[in-house]
Amino acid sequence: MIGLSTYAFFWQHSDRVPAPLSLVGAFEATREQDVRLFQICDFAPLERMSDEQLREAARAARDLGLTIELGTKGIEAPRLERFLRLAEIFDARLVRSMVFGPDSRPNPQQAEEWLRDAAPAFERAGVDLALETYEQIATADLVRLVERVGSPRLGVCLDPANVVARLEHPRDCVELAAPVLKNVHVKDFAFDRQDGWVGFTYSGAPMGRGLHDYRHLLDTARPRERGINEVVEHWLPWQGDPTSTVDLERAWTRTTLEYLRSTL
């Protein structure tokens, strides 16, 4: 299934725009584009919402016919327990996270212990825990960690754009992560010369116009054959003013959805 993430609404949610979009507003905008999956990922207001506000948001998603996934950072027990509870409220079947959280950087042994401790609860709940490929940890090490824990509910959220920062090639990341794949983050990326031709900026690009060989990802990881969701997000730089930035963010979402649908 193709979905949108809160990262596809990054600037629309931001306090840099005059009227930031609410979570339910993002749900509604998602359905307006005939998309039925939404990933609430690294969305700080979610953790400040009361139980009643959470139930209202979950009810709004259900009324719109949306499937919800969740996303956070960190694998320490309180965080994973909290998001498993949120998954119950939203009837979510996937939580994306990262090994390193805002306040925790476990060593490999500690990370394995934490994940082993957490795995039974995710298995009982029928919820997948997908650890994102990221520059802090080599993809090969992340895959080995998942394989050592050996839970059927533990896998990888594949985002090959992130690993370029540790000089990994995106195609290598895809090939390593494919066997343990649980989720895909979809965005294109490119290098641009900085002003004066001194160095480069690595940033987002409209889908299909950057360096991401998405056909290689589809052919290698086969997410659609395996029932693995593809979730759209963006790395869109601020465009100088709210109107230009929001307009371009919406245009990138349309472009990405058109691209993905053309590959179905």
Automatic annotation (TrEMBL):
Any single GO molecular-function term of the entry would be: isomerase activity
Alphabetized InterPro entries for the sequence: IolE/XylAMocC-like, Xyl_isomerase-like_sf, Xyl_isomerase-like_TIM-brl
Q: Where is the Xylose isomerase-like TIM barrel domain?
A: 36-254
Give the transmembrane ranges.
none
Which keywords describe this protein according to UniProt? Carbohydrate metabolism, Isomerase
Q: Does the keyword DNA repair apply?
A: no
Please state what the protein is called: Sugar phosphate isomerase/epimerase
What is the species of this protein? Leucobacter chromiisoli
